[in-house]
Amino acid sequence: MNALMLLLIFAAFGLTMWAQFKVKGNFKKWSKEMAGSGMTGRDVARRILDENGLRDIPVEPVRGKLTDHYDPMSRVVRLSEPVYYENSIAAVSVAAHECGHAIQHKEAYGFLVLRHRMFPVSNFASGIAPLMLLGGLLMKMSGLLLLGIVLFAAAVAFQVVTLPVEFNASSRAKQILVKDGFINNMEERGVNKVLNAAALTYVASTLYAILELLHFVLLFLNDD
């Protein structure tokens, strides 16, 4: 059973690596395809926010690639420089996705609210859980191992809740881009490729985390 679990974990890890490669590849490919609207990621983000009553939320550039995010604490959309300044299909796709999170925040989207409430616990748990798990295994202390499992489960639950948040933001982005004419029918395929690849990374990493958690649970049960 443990051998099968380890095999599944390695397979999930491989899927995670492949998903990350896929998202980078799709972003690079569709960064070379310019959107017919001629609007940059910053332009698209600004217009989406304004049209959804979020004029007070700034759009700022941030260094790096694929570092785009919506900061709910500061209430700001931050776009990586290739997204902020360029008018590619990849840029408008990512910009619209991050605006989707801002709209979720405004509407108090249930899973986003839950995710925000879980964050402090998850942040603490993800930092200390590995130490507890390692200590419990090395010192053969079942109590310490169980505590590590509980903390790790909290971190995994956060990842699970993140999935509908990301899927919903991408769904909103696709609808807005088409409805408001930011992309044409020919460009819709590129948007789907970029956003679906990004979603796959969340699915793969969550699957990997769940299998890891199950593996630790089996180790704990077998130890008893």
TrEMBL record:
Pfam families linked to this entry: Zn_peptidase_2
Keywords from the named record: Membrane, Transmembrane, Transmembrane helix
Keyword Membrane: yes
Organism domain of life: Bacteria
Record keyword tRNA processing present: no
TM ranges: 118-137, 144-165, 199-221
Span of the signal peptide: none
Name of this chain's protein: Peptidase
Species this protein is from: Paludifilum halophilum
